[in-house]
Amino acid sequence: MEYYLAIASTVLLLVNLVGIAIAAWRLSPNGSPAPLTSSQPPVSIVIPARGIENFTPLTLAHAFQLDWPHYELIFCVAEDRDPVMPAIREAIAAHPSIPARILVGDDRISANPKLNNCVKGWRAATNDWVILADSNVLMPPDYIRHLMAGWRPDTGLVCSTPLGSRPDGFWAEVECMFLNSHQAKWQYVGEALGFGFAQGKSMLWHKPMLDARGGIEALAAEIAEDAAATKLVNGIGRKVHLVASPFEQPLGRRNLEEIWGRQSRWARLRRVTFPAYFAPEILLGSLPPLAFGIAAAVIADVNVAAVAAAILLAAYLPELCLAKAKNWPLSAASLPAMMVRDIMMPAIWLRSWIGGSFDWRGNTMTIGTEGSELNTPSAA
Fold this sequence. Notes:
Elements (H helix, E strand, L loop, with lengths): L1 H25 L16 E7 L6 H8 L7 E7 L7 H10 L5 E5 L8 H12 L4 E5 L9 H7 L5 E6 L1 E7 L1 H23 L9 E5 H5 L13 H11 L3 E4 L4 E7 L2 H18 L1 H4 L8 H14 L3 H22 L8 H19 L3 E5 L2 E5 L10 E2 L1
Parallel strand pairs: 1-2, 1-4, 2-3, 5-8, 6-9
Antiparallel strand pairs: 4-7, 5-7, 10-11, 11-12
Helix pairs in contact: 1-6, 1-11, 1-12, 6-13, 9-13, 11-12
């Protein structure tokens, strides 16, 4: 028995190591310049916004400082009384040379409030290339160039995962470890192996292609617009590709309740949209190989502490090296944050199989235990 347990532990550690190696090969260090592009067509950037976040003035300012010859910004807000409106108006007034406007309204085409908010912006976009960008993305000056450089002959969509940055406090460090060396790593591994998944933070679309297949309304086919985008793109024989260097999402202060709520929500969405891919997630992180290894050591009557230390070293040292090589945020809290993340992951996975409601920026949404059951959101 100890032989099979030891093999299971070793296999899981090797899978993690191979994943890190693939991500290291696929990813460019944070801050790397975008590859040159052969053409620079005009681009529309649709930004759904709701409420004030920790770095709203900074992310707004960056959206007006892109080194692309022709682009427009379309800010979408569901209600005119939203507290983000003055900040957007101030940013537009401070950058009169950049075409920008605010569209207000709530088109209820789905139970996804973010998608509903984007509809008016998509319809108003004047260019063939459209980026759907979350308001908390910290766009580098070469933001559009990164996305356009990711487009290949077989591409249907180019995305970027969020790269957690500017953490303030331990729980923000934990969120960095969720976003960066865990989620981003595995998303880039999937893309490198030929089955990339869309990520809704930044999505570059060729508008005529999506319009020919139902337009933005087609993304209402699933609970999450990125899941619907993945299935749509795969259904037409194209692929989802990722930028070489993901874009930052500055975090600021976070607490345990926020992280638990956000990670549980994402896990439930993955469970109902891609259950076959989600189920093996219980084997990710350091706890499964650690549990198998300790069990093998106990049965074989060898030094349990030495075995546990070796497994943790094999699990975390490569991850720390990946973060260091790619210029991702690292601090003295990074290793403890990785450990806390891995302790949380099995609980989050188990929680995802239980239906229930959650709050998403003032909208109450409910995911059932079967399929993609979702109640209509209610505005708070």
